[in-house]
């Protein structure tokens, strides 16, 4: 009789331990999945913001080129709602990916903003400050393009 009771307790204990291990495994899988989903959502938001900001930079490049080629006065681009919303949104999204990505992006946005503020409203625009603003814009555009293309160029498996 004692052997039967021992087997029952051993089976019950094994079932409890198995249940605890299964619960811990399920919890770990769910936690890892949620963490991955959260990171993926942050990256999607950052990429969307970066593309929106990239398009704004393309428009600004056109305006700077016109100012340089034909002497057209530049509007106050950094005071508008479009600049403020898109720059802040992209900056916040970059910082959500990490301090390194956020700091690098923020530094380049600040450099561009300062360069643009020196030429906005000049009539006629001065050539050297406009060229400096274009250089800052291209640096930021290149930085964004490089970041957006990370992991996109995979070697062709067919050789």
UniProtKB/TrEMBL annotation:
<protein>
    <submittedName>
        <fullName>Uncharacterized protein</fullName>
    </submittedName>
</protein>
<keyword id="KW-0472">Membrane</keyword>
<feature type="transmembrane region" description="Helical">
    <location>
        <begin position="12"/>
        <end position="30"/>
    </location>
</feature>
<keyword id="KW-0812">Transmembrane</keyword>
<keyword id="KW-1133">Transmembrane helix</keyword>
């Amino acid at each position: 009789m004692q052997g039967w009771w021992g087997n029952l307790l051993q089976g019950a204990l094994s079932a409890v331990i198995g249940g605890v291990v299964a619960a811990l495994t399920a919890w770990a899988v769910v936690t890892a999945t949620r963490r991955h989903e959260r990171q993926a959502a942050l990256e999607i938001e950052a990429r969307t913001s970066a593309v929106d900001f990239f398009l704004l930079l393309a428009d600004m490049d056109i305006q700077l080129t016109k100012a340089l080629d034909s002497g057209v006065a530049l509007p106050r681009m950094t005071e508008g709602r479009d600049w403020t919303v898109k720059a802040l949104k992209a900056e916040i999204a970059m910082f959500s990916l990490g301090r390194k990505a956020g700091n690098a992006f923020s530094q380049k946005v600040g450099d561009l903003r300062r360069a643009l503020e020196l030429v906005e409203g000049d009539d006629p625009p001065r050539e050297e400050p406009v060229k400096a603003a274009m250089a800052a814009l291209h640096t930021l555009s290149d930085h964004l393009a490089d970041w957006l293309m990370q992991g996109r160029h995979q070697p062709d498996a067919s050789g």
